[in-house]
Every structure is written in structure tokens, then in C-alpha cells.
Design goal:
mainly beta; four-stranded antiparallel β-sheet; four-stranded mixed β-sheet; 1 helix
Length: 123
């Protein structure tokens, strides 16, 4: 009869696989134990502890209104500081530029009137 193994992840979940992965739902420190059984004899081996930290609070999404009134250069600089890879001028004064295909979360589309940003949107 082969040895039977069970991982106890310390959070109430048990895994009968000899190689185990755990996904913890809550922050805390968990004692991980490998339990074994062979011919009616049982034992346990401490595998140490796992500390799960709380997820950091999500940063509030910057308001597109933050770009309104900025110069085109100022909007490009602010977008770069906020992690945008691209800034596309969708419209400048009365000229509408052809759209780029697809939506990109790393692209900021702006509209400029009289040298100032009048609209900003992600995509």
C-alpha cells in the first residue's frame, strides 16, 4: 500500500495531491502541515507558515477632468506620469483625425480647442 499524503493549508482546506498549491482568500498567517498515512500509521510534518498580506487598496482612477484646460503638452506630460503609453489627439480645433483601430487601456485620447484640452478619455 502506498503512502497517502494530505496537505493541510491551515485555512481549512486539505489537498490530497503530493504537490500542492494553495490560494488563500483572507490575509493572515497559516501553518502548513503535510499529513501522511501508511498501513494505519499516521504522522504529520510541519512545512512552515505562509503569511498572506492584505491586497493594497486600489488607487482611485484619475479623473479625465484633470486634463481639461491643460495645454496639449501638459496633457501629454500628465498622461505619461499616470502610466499612459500613448496620447492621441482625436480632434484639434475643427479637424477630426482618423480613429485608430481597437481600444487600448494604455492610450489617452484628447480633443484640443484653441490650444487647450476640452475632452479626455481612455481608449
Amino acid at each position: 500500500m502506498p503512502v497517502r499524503y494530505t496537505f493541510d493549508h491551515g485555512d481549512g482546506t486539505l489537498d490530497p495531491n503530493p504537490v500542492s498549491s494553495a490560494y488563500y482568500n483572507n490575509p493572515g498567517t497559516y501553518a502548513v502541515t503535510l499529513r501522511w498515512e501508511l498501513n494505519g500509521t499516521r504522522g504529520a510534518i510541519s512545512c512552515g507558515t505562509v503569511t498572506v498580506l492584505a491586497a493594497p487598496a486600489a488607487a482611485p482612477a484619475p479623473s479625465n477632468a484633470d486634463y481639461l484646460g491643460l495645454s496639449e503638452t501638459g496633457a501629454v506630460q500628465l498622461a505619461a506620469q499616470r502610466g499612459f503609453s500613448f496620447v492621441r489627439v482625436a480632434r484639434r480645433d475643427n479637424f477630426v483625425y482618423p480613429p485608430n483601430p481597437g481600444v487600448r487601456n494604455d492610450r489617452l485620447n484628447i480633443e484640443v480647442d484653441g490650444g487647450r484640452v476640452t475632452s479626455a478619455r481612455v481608449g
